[in-house]
Amino acid sequence: MRRVIRIYDTTLRDGTQGEGVSFSMEDKVRLATRLDAFGIHYIEGGWPGSNPKDLRFFRRMQDVTLKHAKLAAFSMTRRAGGVTESDPNMQAIIDSGAPVATIVGKAWDFHVTQALETTRDENVAMIRDSIAYLRPKMDEVLFDAEHFFDGFRANREYALATLKAAAEGGAHWLVLCDTNGGTLPPDLVAIIQVVKRTVQTPLGIHVHNDAECAVANSLAAVTEGVDQVQGTINGYGERCGNANLVSIIPTLALKMGLDCIPVAHLGELRDLSRFVSELANRKPWASQPYVGDSAFAHKGGMHVSAVQKHPHTYEHVEPESVGNHRRVLVSELAGKSNVLWKAREYGIDLDRDTPDSRRILDRLKALEDEGFQFEGAEASFELLMERALGRHKPYFELDAYRVIVEEQSAAEEPVAEATVRVKVKGILEHTAAAGNGPVNALDHALRKALEEFYPNLRELKLLDYKVRILDESKGTAAKTRVLITSGDGRETWGTVGVADNIIEASWQALVDSVEFKLRADERRRV
Q: At what angle do helices 120-134 and 88-95 cross, to 10 degrees?
């Protein structure tokens, strides 16, 4: 029988302590349901005794049936000098209806005297009493030994005494916490080895990422026999975050050969990561291992050529195993392999040995030398290939455009107005429109001219607009690169423009966005 590592997710509590992260009560219910379906063993829902939202969440979850996970309620030990039976935190845990209680207690004597302002002996009693009181009332009771590693370094005997107290109280798990996130893997391993010689209760690990070691520390703990790993999806958490389960889970399953999440569910990992990002209103981390957009993105021509021959040359796992996919980027580092790969992706028949691929590559490198960047603007690159091959079909031709920005008084916002003259299907259209800025006005004027001929343009939305100054030393005369992200409800795409004039750069990106949309609609009809 293979060893099973229990995954304990604390996104709903620790994750919400991250700066800018907040979940509504219904968000938390949706997240708990999704984590359960993914195969998480424990879901820590929050601290029912600390705030009304968490209390409502636990009441709401009493009507939700979890198929795989156990719901855990978090709380601190009884108060110093208090009585366990009448302690409000103990009662809140029981009233939550959660089958699992996770009790945090101080393992660092510095915190006992300075933060709790009590005695070392009373803190040990608080731990033992709280665990013993909850033990017969819960399916499982976990003890989170807060600041354990710092406490061990400061006073080894006292830190171990807190674990012994929890074990004597009947804790099912002793969770070693690197709360300040500064422990390095060799130190963590040495301390765990001492702990294992001292207590027999199964161990868990809960580490923070302040020294960028949270994932490494979690995996190191597993190699030392720790059977429960705590963390959050995407590593969300206070300060620098918690151990990132999105990195830990596939490493345990695919590299260490350990059972944790059902292997069949690993293909949902990227979707789960994105789901949590969406509810947290956080932009996904492009370079996140395993699931990020860049995790299996190849840019250098030599790399792409090798990956075409065998993906393992530059990939440590199959992208599909974690729900991701391989991407090939185009840039000044590209070779023919990049161009051919992208051509196939766009349905363009291109042969390696024809002048066409060299012509596209030469054009690409010339444009990037001017400041263009196609890594985030693949729609513009597709149009570039079509133009280089002589296959580009213009949907309209620019005759002229003009933009005026007028400020009428210091108390009012400036007014932007754009006029556009374009030829559409042989007809000259002359339109004007206002906007909250020059680019917005241009967008409105162009749409006004085109929507009568191409009604589907009403679906087009500009989702993001980024400006990059390419040569800061030239100040306001510097060349500007504009990246626009657009979408129509079915897909999203990026376009780019570069010019000395920011309005011209914006116009280039805007035109590419519109042409890509019209081209995509035409292909759908075919």
A: 30
Consecutive H or E run containing 58:
helix 52-61
Give residue for tokens 């590209």. 334
In the three-class reduction of DSSP (H, G, I as helix; E, B as strand; rest coil), residue 245 is classed as helix
Residue type, 318: E
Place of tokens 């020059």: 438
**pLDDT above 90 (res 381):** no
Query: Do the beta carbons of residue 364 and residue 381 sit within 8 Å?
Result: yes
* pTM (predicted TM-score): 0.69
Query: Is residue 260 scored above 60 in pLDDT?
Result: yes
Compute the distance between CA of residue 113 and CA of residue 156 in angstroms, rounded to an integer. Answer: 16
pLDDT digits (tens, 9 = 90+) for 182-241: 999 999 999 999 999 999 999 999 999 999 999 999 999 999 999 999 999 999 999 999
pLDDT tier for residue 419 given thresholds of 50, 70 and 90: very high
Pairing of strands 415-424, 427-435: antiparallel
Query: Residue 317's pLDDT is what?
Result: 85
349: burial class by Cβ within 10 Å (0-12, 13-18, 19+)?
A: exposed
For the chain, the maximum distance between any two Cα atoms, rounded to a whole number of angstroms, is 90
> What pairing do the DSSP bridges indicate for beta strands 461-469 and 297-298?
unpaired
Asked if the model's pLDDT at residue 337 lies above 60, the reply is no
* Model pLDDT for residues 124-147, shown as the tens digit of each residue: 999 999 999 999 999 999 999 999
Structure tokens at 208: 């923070």
Count of CB atoms situated within 10 Å of the CB of 395:
19
The H-or-E segment that residue 206 falls in is strand 203-207
Using CA atoms, how far apart are residues 495 and 520, in angstroms rounded to an integer? 14
- Distances from the Cα of 139 to the Cαs of 47, 94, 136, in angstroms? 18, 11, 8
- CA–CA distances in Å: residue 53 to residues 44, 47, 76, 118, 192: 14, 9, 18, 30, 36
CA distance 237 to 13: 9
Domains and CATH numbers, the chain: 6-261 (3.20.20.70), 297-388 (no CATH), 396-453 (3.30.160.740)
Smallest Cα–Cα separation from 180: which of 120, 103, 118, 240? Answer: 240
Euclidean distance between the first and the last CA atom of the chain, given in angstroms as a whole number: 54
% the chain with pLDDT above 90 = 59
Gap between the Cα atoms of 429 and 235, Å rounded:
52
- The 8-class DSSP code of residue 321 comes to G
Q: Do residues 513 and 500 lie in contact, with contact meaning Cβ atoms separated by under 8 Å?
A: no
The torsion defined by the Cα of 320, 324, 330 and 332, in degrees rounded to 10, comes to -100
Q: How many helices (H) and strands (E) does the chain have?
A: 17, 16
For 426, how many CA atoms within 13 A lie in the half-sphere containing its CB?
Answer: 0
Q: Would you say 347 and 339 are in contact if contact means Cβ atoms under 8 Å apart?
A: no
Residues in the chain: 526
